[in-house]
Amino acid sequence: MSTPDHTNSRSDPRWVRITLVTAALGVVGVLIVIPLVDVFVEAFGRGFGAYWRTLTADEDTLAAIRLTMTVAPIAVVTNLIFGIAAAWAISRFRFPGRTLLTALIDLPFSVSPVVAGLIFVLIFGLQGYLGPWLRAHDWRIIFATPGLVLATTFVTFPFVARELIPVMEAIGADEEIAAVSLGASGWQLFRRVTLPNIKWGLVYGLILCNARAMGEFGAVYVVSGHITGRTDTMPLRVEKLFQEYNTPGAFAVASLLASLALVTLAVKTALEWKTRRDLAEAARLRSEGEEP
Amino acid sequence: MNDVNRRVLPGFRLSLGYTLAYLGVLVLVPLVACFLKAATLPFDRFWAAVSTDRAVAAYELTVGASLVSAAINVVVGLLVAWVLVRYEFPMKRVVDSLVDLPFALPTAVAGLVYSSLYVQSGWLGRFLVPLGIQAAYSRLAIVLVLVFVGFPFVVRTLEPVLERIDADVEEAAACLGASRLQTVTRVIFPSLYPALVTGFALSFARALGEYGSVVFVSGNMPFKTEIAPVLIVARLEEFAYAEATAIAVVLLVISFAVLVVVNLLERWSKRVYA
Amino acid sequence: MSITVKQVSKSFGSFRALEHVSLEVAGGSLVALLGPSGSGKTTLLRIIAGLEVPDAGTVLYQDEDVTEAAVKDRNVGFVFQHYALFRHMTVFENVAFGLRVRRWPRKRVKERVGELLRLIQLDGLAGSYPSQLSGGQRQRVALARALAPEPKVLLLDEPFGALDAKVRQDLRQWLRRLHDEIHVTSVFVTHDQEEAFEVADRVVIMNHGHVEQTGTPREIFERPANPFVMDFLGNVNVFHGHVVRGRMKVGSFEVDYPAHPHDEPRPATAFVRSHELELLAKRNGRPSLEGKVVHVSPAGPVVRARVFAADFGVVLNVDVTRDRYAELGLEVGDTVYVAARDVRVYVQDYII
Question: CB distance C70–A7 less than 8 Å?
Fold first, then answer.
């Protein structure tokens, strides 16, 4: 990052540096580190055995874990396919409304999760537009897994696309045009040229999408109907245990979600370092090419 | 080049068609349905639903707490971004990755832990409560969790801008006789304004819609600590769909307005500062 | 105000940017620091400005030791290669910056900025932002900004390096005229010898953190102090041979070298500039090399020919006037004889 080439006109006095660093560490400490540590302390406070029993003895908690492991992957995969299609269309072609489309993809980020849940209730709920028809065919969407999947997919909708679009724009179409000129079919083009180039951007988008999908609360809260053992995902289970004054149980489930967050952060950081190294390497190669 | 691409590269119709269909079905149609549902209400009923004292108190709290938390985030975000870009200190890389935790940590977990930290027996509450600071089940609690969820926005918006400030601009200011403080306040900060505004708006927009963490910490007392999303859920649980939708529309309009303002600001700053 | 640099050294990590450099800049003169990249010229300029602190040595403004003085207290005008304009300020505010931080009264700021904008001929653009200006205009604004607080010295780091050739030429002449008007002691860094020779009163040639030669452009061109300067100035043919008993021998070719009358041979290098070689259609008794014309580049004020001398296995670059070119009727494939009007010989151990 910033190289220590500080000349006297750019560096701040030592007391300023120490004060500011201390203040910043204080902010990060109170806001982030203490809460994070507290999750695990509360969860493991009475020993690992108690923690393990709290998690595994409760059939409803296990059901919540299974439900999250079902809903999140579906949402992630559908948004992955969408993200690739959207990034291909937006980064490789010019067409009227392209800027608008790019803006619309970000739309779910500015919709409150509660509202995101509500809009699906309005369509698929008993009193919703499709409610009577669904009921006649005995299909349940709201207060059932499909509703959870829909709401989760909505709130995680932009993640993969918005990571991929800038990556693909930066890479450019030259290699793909070359591949087409060499006779590659559409699928070969994607698998052999595009995919290897975007794979790290894809992983980056995927892990962020997955973290949000597993952790989503507001939207699924509205569509789930809180049927214990049936429609509670892990975050909903945390809330229910909290409301039942089962604090150890709530923190046990929360610790799983917090571990997921830490893994996500670790992968994200590793990918960012890798990208930075690759960029530096590319810049070095370019400059060597220029100065023989 | 564009027309060439469309002739050269495959998949234009397929990818764009799929993108539009998916976006339409999953996002646009449901959002339009929400507005349509609200439009089926006669205007006086709509107005009655969105302007009850309880609803107005909820908007005020939502917008007020979001503004305060975004303002706090501008200050602490600037501090943290500055320190991360400009100084070297132990554990810097760890701190740098931890800044993103609010993006990765489920809001329910944040709410749960914040609710336990600031009660009298909690790690932070045991110091604060004797001082008379009630940071659990209060408006202060709402601001605190909103600061948490919005924290990364300002930092991550500012960092690249701070990194891009050329050394020679600061050196130029020093050569012209500016003291370090003058350089920072007259040269560096003004070039950060657009990023600060963007960071503020992003953090504000995130706070406006936040639900998961707030329900845990606020106590959800109507007129006191009930935010708009909580009110929507309360209305839903009373099966008052129309009223819930009306309030949701108000919330959506505020969010979209923020979105438009952010976009306009970014376009403006790109033009002036290019 | 004169500038004196005494025995200055500076390292960055293991890289020694400057080693015991000394330099005198007379008050009111315009001096160029010329050298290849990595020669230390920019570091020296930044040390004079106070943007770097030397590891050893002193910098004097007139008689005052400013080595440890902070940049902001030195009252130097510094012009950066990439302008370093404040992007969020208008042209007016950029130029006014140095006056505002010195708390000049508003009215005087307005007058002074107006004066400078007229000087750089941009008074119509006072309200524009830097992003709306061309490269040449930006550099003029940067110069006006540096001059506004009436600096004691003006320092310019590759001031025209980022501009295209035509604008560069104009600005360079403009800088010379400006200096003749205001006479502020000025030092500028460049790697372009044409620029240095055209603009500066004195030129300082630097290489590997050392000063190789200091002098007027004419002195340097006519009497290059050493092989580095000779080579750096370019357009030169190089021959490697040895000196013995007062003669330098390159194959069968010989020139006098009285400074080495000894018996034991020493490796030496002979330099002949392209315009100091002559082309002859036939031998005329003077020592000359036979060669074959392999390339002629006739588009330019002088005609450049490349002649392959088979006996030596070297290609010689020869500049011929257009008249002489017409007289000889030079064509590729012609056999010609190359004679030297002036040869400079440097014995190897003088090469650093």
Answer: no
